[in-house]
From TrEMBL, chains A, B, C:
Pfam families: OTCace, OTCace_N. Homotrimer. This is N-succinylornithine carbamoyltransferase. It catalyses: N(2)-succinyl-L-ornithine + carbamoyl phosphate = N(2)-succinyl-L-citrulline + phosphate + H(+). Its EC number is 2.1.3.11. Residues 187-312 form the Aspartate/ornithine carbamoyltransferase Asp/Orn-binding domain. Keywords: Amino-acid biosynthesis, Arginine biosynthesis, Transferase. One of its GO terms (molecular function) is ornithine carbamoyltransferase activity. N(2)-succinyl-L-ornithine binds at E142, H179, K240, R280. Belongs to the aspartate/ornithine carbamoyltransferase superfamily. SOTCase family. GO terms for biological process: citrulline biosynthetic process; L-arginine biosynthetic process via ornithine. Carbamoyl phosphate binds at S47, M48, R49, T50, W75, R110, H147, P148, L149, Q150, C276, L277, R304. Residues 2-159 form the Aspartate/ornithine carbamoyltransferase carbamoyl-P binding domain.
Amino acid sequence: MKNFLSANDAGNIDDLVHTALHFKTNPFSNSSLGKGKRIGLLFLNPSMRTRLSTQIAAQNLGMESIVFNASQEGWAFEFEEGAVMNGTTAEHIKDAAPILGKYFDILGIRTFPTLKDRESDYAEKVLHQFVKYCGIPVISLESATLHPLQSLTDIITISSHLPVENKTKPKVLLTWAPHVKALPQCVANSFAQWVNAWGHANFVITNPAGYDLDEKFTSGAEIIHNQDEALKDADFVYVKNWSSYQDYGKIINVDDNWLLDNKKLETTNDAKVMHCLPVRRNVELSDEILDGGNSIITEEAGNRVWAAQAVIQEILRNV
Amino acid sequence: MKNFLSANDAGNIDDLVHTALHFKTNPFSNSSLGKGKRIGLLFLNPSMRTRLSTQIAAQNLGMESIVFNASQEGWAFEFEEGAVMNGTTAEHIKDAAPILGKYFDILGIRTFPTLKDRESDYAEKVLHQFVKYCGIPVISLESATLHPLQSLTDIITISSHLPVENKTKPKVLLTWAPHVKALPQCVANSFAQWVNAWGHANFVITNPAGYDLDEKFTSGAEIIHNQDEALKDADFVYVKNWSSYQDYGKIINVDDNWLLDNKKLETTNDAKVMHCLPVRRNVELSDEILDGGNSIITEEAGNRVWAAQAVIQEILRNV
Amino acid sequence: MKNFLSANDAGNIDDLVHTALHFKTNPFSNSSLGKGKRIGLLFLNPSMRTRLSTQIAAQNLGMESIVFNASQEGWAFEFEEGAVMNGTTAEHIKDAAPILGKYFDILGIRTFPTLKDRESDYAEKVLHQFVKYCGIPVISLESATLHPLQSLTDIITISSHLPVENKTKPKVLLTWAPHVKALPQCVANSFAQWVNAWGHANFVITNPAGYDLDEKFTSGAEIIHNQDEALKDADFVYVKNWSSYQDYGKIINVDDNWLLDNKKLETTNDAKVMHCLPVRRNVELSDEILDGGNSIITEEAGNRVWAAQAVIQEILRNV
C-alpha cells in the first residue's frame, strides 16, 4: 500500500479487516515496526475521533505522531497553479507539501469540500496536490468526497457482527437522515464504495428524491426512495445525513419523516444501527435507538483505532 | 482510587503527600508503570499549568498523553438529556464520552462553572456526566466547584514547609483578594475541603461580607470578615479571589483594601504566601510579596507535577 | 552553549554546521542523550516549520517535547515591571517564566516584534525577560529582531553547496523582495549577523532606499541599492521581504520591480536561490524560480531539523 485515499488503495479488504481485528485483541503486537518513524497529521478542518484514533494507532506501532491544525495555527494554503499570492493565502501547497515530506515518513491529511464547486471537490484537488507534492505516502483523514478510514472501520464493525456460519449475505442499508447543516457526501460516498468493493452484502441505499449520490460510488447498490420499504429485513442500518449531490451542497426540504426511531426498526431483522458520529440526537436518530441495544455506534467508533492501525502498518511495510 | 474528583477520593492524604514528595526527588522511579497506557486530557476551558504538569506527570510514569482542547478544536458538547439537537451543539456527551473511554485508560477533564446557574454548577453536572458515560477513571483538571489537583499540591507545599518536629498545628489562612473578573469559587472551595480533610492545621478563612463560601466545604474552618484580625500569627496565607456564592457569580463592591502587601504580613508569623496562579499583580498581591522571600508560589506551582504524578500512579494501580 | 538567541551564542559556527550535517545522515546517532529531559516550545505567535522541526529534533535526541500555543490557548502575558494588572493581561512573565523553568529542561520561545516600538523590539524585551526569569536554557524560535535557527540552517545549506575545493569565497547576496504585509526584519537581520560571523562569504545586501537594515547586524556587508548590479556573479541569492527599519515597521512604495525571476538570475553565477518560507509566489519570487533547478528552498527547510538538533545537543550537554 502506497497511499490510502479510497477503497481502490485497500488491496484485499478481508485481509485488512482481519489485521484490524487482530490489533483489537493485540494492540502492541507490532509495536516496534514504527520505531524512528514519524507521522504528521495535518488538519485543514477540525477532528476529534479521527485525530485521536490515528494518533493512538501510530503510537501502538511505535511511531511518533505530530498534529498540526492548520486552520487554528494560522496557515491558509494556496492551491491555485500560477497564483499571484498578494491576497490572504500565506503559502502555496507546492512549497509546503514537500517540506512535510521531508519532516515525516507518512502524512495524514484532512480536507473538506467547498460544497460550492462540485467539479473541484470531486476532483479531490486539495488532496491530490498534497499527494503530488509531498513525496511520501498519504493517508486520507477524510477528504472532499471520501472518508476511507471511517469506511474500513464500518466494514470491520459489520464483519464483527456477522454469524460465524454466514451462508447468506446480510442486508446492509445506508439511509439518509435529516440534519440542520449542509454536510459533505463523503461518509456516504465512501461507505457505498467500500461495501461495493467488499462484496459480502446485499447493499441498499435509501434517500429522498434529490439526494441521490454520485453513481461512481453507488453503482451496484439498489437505490430506493421509500425509507419504510428499504428498511424491511435490513440486518445493518447505517444512518447518515448528506447534502444534495445533484443540487450541489444544498439542503432540499423533505416532507416525510426520515428520523430513524424504534418504530421504524420493527420491520428490520433486529438491525444493528451504525453512525460515524458526531450525531444530532433526535434529528438524525432518536434517543431510544442511540441508548438502546440495537446501536453498535460506540463499538464502531472504537474500531477507528484498529482500522487506522491496520492501514498504517501496511504503509510502514513499504516505507 | 477509582476517580479523582475531590478530597473524598484521596484516601489517606498524608500517604499521597508522601508519594508526591518521593516523586519530587525521584521523578522516574516508577517510569514503566504506565507503559502502554494512555491518558486523554480534555479541556473545555484553557489551561497552562494544569495541562503541562499533568502531561509531564503522565510521561514520568511512562504513559502516553494526548491533549484535546475542545473549545478551540471546534467541538460544542450537548449535556441536556432528551435534547433535540437542531441548534449549535454538535455532539452529546452521552455519545462522546464512551468513545473517549474506548480510546484512553484514564480521562482528565477540565470544565468551568456557568457562574449563572448555581444549582447546576454545584451539582457538577458536566463532570458527573463524563464520569457516568465514559466508563474509565476520571481525573478532575478543575471542575465547576473544585480543583483537587491544585489543593493536593497546596497540601504538599505546606507539608514541605512544616518544621520536622511539628508539635503544634500551623495556622493556615485562606484570604479573599480583589480581582477584575468574576472568578469561580473552585480553588477556594477545594482548598477548604482539603485542609479540613487533611486535619493538620488551624484553618481560618477571611473574606468580605457577601463572599462566604459554601459551608459544605468550609465547615470546620473559622470564618472571619476582618482580614487584619485573621492575619495575626498566620503561618501560611493562601491568597485567592472568588466571586460571590450567595449572590451567585457576582462581584460585590468592597470598601476595604484586601490587596495583600508586606505591611499586612507584619502581624503574621513570617507567613509563607501561596497562590494557585495566574495572579493579577498589584490587584490580588503586591509586587513586593511576589518578588520577596515569603512567597513560595513558584515552588507551589512546581509541585503540581508531583501531585498529578501521585494521583495518576494511584489510579494506574487500579486500572 | 547556555542559551541560543543569536550568532553570539553559536561558538564555532563551522563546528555546529559539521554536527548538523552529521545528524542529517545519522538522525538517531545520539538518541539517548535527551532521555528524561523535556523541552517546552512556547509560541506567542504561530509557526509551522519551526514548531515541527524543533519537535522532531528533540525527539531524535530522545527528549519529550510539549508545545504550548499561548495566543490560541488563551494566555495574554504582561511584560511591564510594576504593572497594576487590572486590564486584559492574565499573567506576568515574572510569574509564568519560573514555572516553565520548573517544568522543562530547555525552553524554546517564539515572539514577534510590535513593528511599532522600535526601541522595545530591538531591546528584545520579551525574549530577555523569559531568559531572565525562567532559569533554564532558552532557544529562540524567532524573536523580535533575529531568527538564529533559520540562519544556522541557511549557513548549513550554503555549506552543503560549496565545492569541496573551495578556494575563493562564494558571493552571497541577500536581496529584499516585495510583500503585501509589513514583515519583521528578523530573518534578514539574522542572516546578515550569521553570514558575517561565519566569515566564509563575500557578503552583499541589496534593498531599495529606505529599507537599510540595522548596521549592528549588517556591518561588514556591502550594501547596494541597485538589485541588477548586486546580482552580478552571485553564487547564492537569499530572497526575503522586510518592512522598513528606518521608517519603522512601514511599507515604503518601491518603483522598481524587485520580484526575482529567471531573467534576473542570468547575470549570476547560476546562483542557488534560498528563502526561509513561507513565500508569496509571484510577489517575492516567480513560479519559474521556485519550480526550477536553481531553488534549494525545500532542502533548506528540511535542514531546519538538523540545525535545531545540533543546537539542542549542545545545550543538553550543559544541562
